[in-house]
Amino acid sequence: MAEFCTEHDLPEPVVISHDLSAEAAATAVEQWREAGVSAVATYNDEYAFAILAGMRALGLSAPEDLAVIGVDDVQLSKFAAPPLTTVTLSPPDAVEILGKLVLANLGEEEYPELAPQATLPKLVVRETT
Fold it and tell me: What is the pTM of this model?
């Protein structure tokens, strides 16, 4: 990510690791705000839920004070307060392609024709961005 940001003249991301708790997330939110961060992309939706809880504990809201995006599009994402913007992945497609590539490398199958768009992540825009 840092390399991508450098190549595109963007500021380097401010990465903060924290426990999966509202208290730890609130501390991270305070640190991001002190650093001038306006948006956070989390490891997964669960961490995004923690960030939203930490923001509520601080009297902050998404996206007004800090935009938040998760990854996984778990069923509860649409019920978060506010509903979470997230990225949905397609593990079944990826597993199928990976399996075919393994078999092809073993010489048991032809290399599959890959449809890259089948496994591309998809942005699910809700109310946190």
Answer: 0.77
d(CA 110, CA 29): 49
Q: What is the CATH number of domain 2-89?
A: 3.40.50.2300
Q: Residue 87's Cα: distance from chain center in Å? A: 6
**85-103: per-residue pLDDT in tens?**
999 987 766 677 777 778 8
Q: Is the alpha carbon torsion for 96, 102, 105, 107 positive or negative?
A: negative
Given this model, what pLDDT does residue 125 score? 96
Start-end of H helices in the chain? 2-7, 22-34, 45-57, 91-105
8-36 as b/e: b if 16+ CB within 10 A:
eeeeeeeebebeeebebbbbbbeebeeee
Whole-angstrom Cα distance, residue 88 to residue 92?
12
Query: 13 is written with which tokens?
Result: 């991301």
